[in-house]
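Take a protein:
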Amino acid sequence: MDTRQKKIAIIGAGVAGMVAALELSKGGAKVVVFEKSSKAGGRAQTTHKEGYYLNFGPHALYAGGLAHRYLQNNGIDYRGAAPPLNRENLAIFAGEVYELPVNLSSLFRATYLNWSEKVELARFFRRLPHLDLDKIMSTSLAQWLKVNVKRTRVRQTIETFVRLSTYANSPQELSAGAAFAQVILANQGVLYLDHGWQTIVESIQRKLNSESTSLRFGAQVQSVRQLADAVEILVDEETFLFDAVLLCIPPQEVEKLLPDALSGQALSTCRAACLDVCLKRLPRPKHTFALGVDEPLYYSVHSTTAKLADGEGVLIHLAYYLEPQDNRDDHEERLLRLLEQLQPGYEQELVYKRYLPHMVASYGLPRADHAGAAGLKSPRLKGYPSIFVCGDYVGSDWQLVDCAVNSSLEAVQTVLASRDEGVYGRWQENAASATVESQG
């Protein structure tokens, strides 16, 4: 039995990389994390600007998801709250404001739908928890809706809730089974986090054992090479040898380091044009949440739920969910018109605003032609026995940050080679039970 302490490198200090570092150090490994930026977090970084805490676009932690459960069970310190059930939920249709049908009572007040459309939508919501999602993993959302939903506005409304849950605006590619699984998960509630998602990363960082784990920031990894019994890494012209390497970085960065590793893989990215707006106060205090029905629009005042300002300020997130081939950068004008419509006179209260025209929400769209997998089916890379990939584009069953955490746990389990009572075994069991619950 090999009792030598394993030396593991992690490239990338986003949520996936930090979870992997924590679990590897708990498993007795010697860990070095290489991060090219000046701090940990990746897309979970939070910017503190003029007294406001801005995530990179609208972030929500799924209350029933694997990530939330993992963080809670490991004593990761963060605080957040669910949006109030009694808030006004608005729908934007044909440029006008209506009530959004989030439950039975609001469904009958949603006047952009006629009576027949309301009845069909109500039937869909009743049917949703009982769908056999496994049978429609290889069916696209567009195809499923074409066969099962007669009325256009009902299809548009369902697509609205899918966009909200998945961040994806690609019904032709998106797996219907994966889409509806995420809608069911979202119905269990979401959390907006006080002071942003950086609090998660910082809390994990505080948990790391400084004797077994080191973080190197501003480290540019130049190459990764699989050897017969080790992995060689070149970082800032310095060479290191490790027993294994976890690549917790976006797929395009993996391809730069290992050009043939992802060849032939079906990877699609979910993106959004994001507008973050900091105000001194809300001109219309009741207008805190809205979704576009015939346009892929998102609007939410996160600061009414979470503490995202040092004082009494207000933080609004707006987004335009981008189609796969949409590379335009002119969606800010549409988002500003929506902001003016819901918060007329906002400019007099404006402190700061930031526009991110092509923000990546996820690198792993669960595709129908990939049986609902987020991209790579496993952290293992063919031809690279000691190199693994982790992120929101690796694995099935989960999406977004839940997918990133799940892939990290699976990779860690493989590296530590203790499948009977190991880390991944525990969380795989939790994931399976949560999936059963989400499917009713």
